[in-house]
């Protein structure tokens, strides 16, 4: 008796949905914006919200400002309302009308401006209007450059798709659990993945089928289309249908026609909502730069942290070893605020836990560029760049971790005097970055080198870590292509010694790829540089001794290190809350690491420096300080612990499948 009733109810739902889809299709077709058009500025009366259109009525939706005014399914509207999303952001207003009517979109908008919803909503709606069901298999692929960003995007999909019946999953991390993935991957409607892990399925999963794919989305598209992911992206494109909708989003969008040709966009809509904006960074972001000699950077960072004990801060450093070292040493020195660290040598599970914890607490997160793109962490007050960003785009993404979605935020960048060319680049009119220079007050700087040295005496393993941090920092500078900014030859041997001392090291580690040759002409330097590039086995850097710039005494207007109303509350109890990741490589009680020393021929493999690395390609380092390609670094993650989630989704360590987004 009950079965026919259920069947009847299901039939009624199907009919209702079919009616809704018919109405939506008609509405989308009748009210769609002309190609190449932008929405007009929001009208003053906007916000009241219209009554839903009656059957046969198709109001224009290209100028609307509220999600409720768009031709979206009731399920999506309900989910958006429930999540508190009512009014659209600029990029959403501009991109959604074009994306909903099936056009390819190349979208660019500032960091934190809501690009994720601008592609997630069209994905959900497309599959709904195509009446996609779990049996139909993979309908949409979303590519993300990092595991954490993939997880975050999937969170937004789950929010928007809450009342729909799609299946979805995230494929990231290491291969552990691949057998389960292979079994389930074909039953997922929406896949969010890193490029390498998707290629793995194309190569290894016998029946992996994307022949019905409706949509391809590239978040952080410029990075995904960059050389680091080239072979993976080409492999993916060759395996998916040519006829599909493609959406590309980033805060720093690619303008390369070649890149766009690779993903075969069809008459794309170029939507760059902030192109005419005064700045390339959020208006609510205050940006500062300080010229800080290399050997003063740690003192400066420590002084900053001590003065901002009530601020949530992300600190960017250029290598895993530096992140580990500064985190471990500062933890021992107990600044009075919880400290966390995050880098690519941690398991994805640990990374997720750290991001979740950092979201909820006021603390300082030391990080590599792993967190520089896309991550949406709540209420970050400060972004501090201790090491120079490798490019303007890198700068924009790093500082974009604060001042998100109309919230205020501040950023501070330390630049060595030798890196001032970066400041010029940032200040160039075309960069559109309103950065203010602040002079550090030398007399107020806390000198902690001696304290660090004492910590290192007590913890010999930290001394080894310090040596590796020293080496990987110099190596990261050496490997940068932009020699106008990054040029080790501008530093003197005395400066390196000073830097080593600032890390608490008793002696300056000798580095194979650096030899100090003075009085070399510029031409010889160039020639030698070229020679080095050819024979990468024993590279050298010519040192061009320069007068060491001392810290400039401030003119009294500086308020970065010393806010006008210091809220410092040296609550040492806060240290009890320090999140201590169970990450073996961070443990300073591991075997001391060996370093390569000049004059002591070692049987260890020589430093490998990929001199052919294309400009702008992110350099990541393994524990030995070797540069590793982006995908190899992703593959290094060992997912060993299960994720504990509050919902009923079925999670595997490196892969999770959600049989219903509901
Ligand atoms: N229409 C909206 N109303 C309110 N909040 C929104 C809206 N759209 C997005 N947000 C919020 O704004 C924040 C930033 O959004 P999102 O992460 O999509 O930014 P983004 O443009 O992708 O940034 P990035 O370039 O750094 O990746 C998120 O917390 C999101 O929930």
From TrEMBL:
- EC code: 3.6.4.13
**Disordered: annotated segments:** 28-59
Q: Which UniProt keywords apply?
A: ATP-binding, Helicase, Hydrolase, Nucleotide-binding, RNA-binding
Q: Which family does it belong to?
A: Belongs to the DEAD box helicase family.
| Domain Helicase C-terminal residue range list | 293-446
Organism of provenance: Panicum miliaceum (Proso millet)
Name one molecular function that GO assigns to this entry.
ATP binding
PANTHER family found in the cross-reference section: RNA HELICASE
Q: Where is the DEAD-box RNA helicase Q domain?
A: 65-93
Domain notes from UniProt: The Q motif is unique to and characteristic of the DEAD box family of RNA helicases and controls ATP binding and hydrolysis.
Question: Which residue numbers does the motif Q motif cover?
Answer: 65-93
Any idea what job this protein has? RNA helicase.
Which N-terminal residues, if any, form the signal peptide?
Answer: none
| Record protein name field | ATP-dependent RNA helicase
* Coiled-coil residues: none
Do you know which InterPro entries this protein is assigned to? DEAD/DEAH_box_helicase_dom, Helicase_ATP-bd, Helicase_C-like, P-loop_NTPase, RNA_helicase_DEAD_Q_motif, SPB4-like_CTE
Keyword set includes ATP-binding: yes
């Amino acid at each position: 008796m009950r079965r026919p009733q259920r069947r009847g109810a299901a039939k009624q739902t199907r009919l209702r949905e079919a009616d809704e889809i018919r109405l939506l299709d008609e509405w989308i077709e009748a009210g769609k914006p002309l190609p190449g058009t932008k929405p007009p500025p929001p009208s003053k009366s906007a916000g009241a919200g219209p009554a839903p259109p009656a059957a046969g009525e198709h109001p224009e939706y290209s100028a609307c400002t509220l999600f409720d005014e768009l031709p979206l399914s009731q399920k999506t509207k309900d989910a958006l309302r429930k999540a508190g999303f009512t009014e659209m952001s600029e990029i959403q207003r501009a991109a959604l009308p074009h994306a909903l009517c099936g056009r390819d979109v190349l979208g660019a908008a500032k960091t934190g401006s809501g690009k994720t919803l601008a592609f997630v909503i069209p994905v959900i709606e497309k599959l709904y209007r195509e009446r996609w069901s779990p049996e139909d298999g993979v309908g949409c692929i979303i590519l993300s450059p990092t595991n954490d960003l993939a997880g975050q995007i999937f969170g937004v999909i789950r929010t928007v798709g809450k009342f729909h019946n799609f299946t979805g999953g995230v494929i990231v991390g290491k291969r552990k659990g691949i057998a389960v993935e292979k079994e389930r991957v074909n039953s997922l409607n929406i896949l969010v993945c890193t490029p390498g892990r998707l290629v793995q399925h194309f190569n290894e999963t016998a029946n992996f089928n994307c022949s019905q794919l409706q949509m391809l989305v590239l978040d952080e598209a410029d990075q995904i289309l960059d050389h680091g992911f080239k072979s993976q992206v080409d492999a993916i494109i060759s395996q998916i249908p040519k006829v599909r909708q493609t959406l590309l989003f980033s805060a720093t969008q690619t303008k390369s026609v070649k890149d766009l040709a690779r993903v075969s966009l069809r008459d794309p809509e170029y939507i760059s909502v902030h192109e005419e904006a005064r700045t390339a960074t959020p208006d609510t972001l205050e940006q500062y730069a300080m010229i800080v000699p290399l050997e003063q950077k740690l003192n400066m960072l420590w002084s900053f942290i001590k003065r901002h004990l009530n601020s949530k801060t992300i600190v960017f450093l250029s290598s895993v070893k530096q992140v580990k070292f500064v985190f471990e040493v500062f933890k021992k020195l107990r600044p009075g605020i919880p400290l966390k660290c995050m880098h690519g040598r941690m398991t994805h599970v640990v990374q997720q836990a750290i991001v979740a914890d950092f979201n909820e607490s006021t603390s300082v997160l030391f990080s590599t560029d792993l967190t520089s793109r896309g991550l949406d962490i709540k209420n970050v007050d400060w972004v501090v760049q201790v090491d120079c960003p490798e490019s303007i785009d890198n700068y924009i993404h790093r500082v974009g971790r604060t001042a998100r979605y109309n919230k205020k935020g501040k950023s501070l960048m330390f630049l060595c005097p030798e890196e001032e060319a970066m400041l010029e680049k940032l200040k160039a009119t075309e960069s559109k970055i309103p950065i203010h220079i602040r002079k550090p007050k030398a007399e107020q700087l806390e000198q902690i080198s001696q304290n660090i040295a004492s910590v290192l005496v007590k913890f010999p393993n930290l001394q080894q870590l310090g040596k590796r941090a020293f080496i990987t920092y110099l190596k990261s500078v050496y490997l940068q292509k932009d020699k106008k900014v990054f040029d080790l030859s501008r530093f003197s041997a005395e400066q390196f010694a000073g830097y080593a001392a600032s890390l608490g090291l008793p002696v300056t580690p000798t580095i194979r790829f650096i030899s100090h040759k003075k009085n070399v002409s510029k031409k010889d330097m160039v020639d030698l540089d070229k020679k080095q590039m050819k024979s990468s086995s024993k590279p050298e850097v010519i040192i061009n001794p320069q007068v060491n710039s001392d810290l400039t005494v401030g003119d009294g207007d500086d308020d970065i290190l010393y806010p006008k109303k210091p809220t410092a509350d040296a609550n040492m109890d806060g240290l009890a809350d320090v999140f201590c990741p169970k990450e073996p490589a961070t443990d300073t009680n591991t075997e001391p690491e060996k370093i390569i020393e000049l004059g002591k021929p070692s049987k260890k493999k020589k430093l490998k420096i990929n001199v052919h690395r294309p400009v702008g390609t992110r350099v990541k380092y393994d524990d030995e300080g070797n540069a590793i390609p982006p995908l190899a670094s992703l593959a290094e993650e060992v997912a060993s612990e299960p994720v504990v989630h509050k919902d009923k989704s079925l999670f595997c360590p490196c892969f999770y499948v959600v049989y219903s987004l509901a």
